[in-house]
Amino acid sequence: MFRNQYDTDVTTWSPTGRLFQVEYAMEAVKQGSAAIGLRSRSHVVLACVNKAQSELSSHQKKIFKVDDHIGVAIAGLTADGRVLSRYMRSESINHSFTYESPLPVGRLVVHLADKAQVCTQRSWKRPYGVGLLVGGLDESGAHLYYNCPSGSYFEYQAFAIGSRSQAAKTYLERRFESFGDSSREDLIKDAILAVRETLQGETLKSSLCTVSILGVGEPFHFLDQETIQNVIDTFEKVAEEEEGEAGEGEAEGEAAAAAAPAEQGGSGDQDVAPMEM
């Protein structure tokens, strides 16, 4: 059986129980530039890689403000991401106007998932080809959710999506247990380091990443390029100092190892009794 018999529209199931159009949309997320999110008990940081189509063009915006307490980072089709971020902004405004209180993050994520899921049931629609990392703060604390094109959503302590995101996930998995108690500055540093993991050898500069943060007493906002560059310079300086100390330690160890046989040889000559003539 050929796959193209079952991927003409999103409502056709394959014999193996798969919806190929949904899988194609999820594949589009993997082709987008990387987006990273992580949270502590009081703050949420969203970061993304600034990817331009050519050296002559500017990069497209990948992080959007929904409200003072909610932000979203996207990977995949930017046009779809703009549509969904506008929908989220509208939902938040309507809730605030009706109930005179901020929209809970979990409720917004459910609305977003329902909107994405409808596109998997209608033959005249296509799934949204974008993944969204939704970070927010409400009465129950800080939250980070991932919404995928299938309509599913998951809550994470830290997560990465997009191209080369596996390297960032590996870094986050090694450190996620400490994120809950992390300070604002440490959370920003870990987000930038995770972004660096996705560059695969390319030098990290402030122009290559966008970082946003929200938290208790701190509405959603973007960090300026100077602040990001200062963070990069700080941990690079620390890394150089650690390498220098490690190099000195190795040199001292080699010198000590070389001196040991010489001392043993000298003491051996002294212990030998003189020959009788």
Automatic annotation (TrEMBL):
Residues 239-277 are annotated as: Disordered. The keyword ATP-binding does not apply. GO terms for cellular component: cytoplasm; nucleus; proteasome core complex, alpha-subunit complex. Residues 6-28 form the Proteasome alpha-type subunits domain. Transmembrane segments: none annotated. One of its GO terms (biological process) is ubiquitin-dependent protein catabolic process. Pfam families: Proteasome, Proteasome_A_N. InterPro entries: Ntn_hydrolases_N, Proteasome_alpha, Proteasome_alpha-type, Proteasome_alpha1, Proteasome_asu_N, Proteasome_sua/b. It is found in: Cytoplasm; Nucleus. Residues 254-264 have a biased composition (Low complexity). Belongs to the peptidase T1A family. The proteasome is a multicatalytic proteinase complex which is characterized by its ability to cleave peptides with Arg, Phe, Tyr, Leu, and Glu adjacent to the leaving group at neutral or slightly basic pH. This is Proteasome subunit alpha type. It comes from Microthlaspi erraticum.
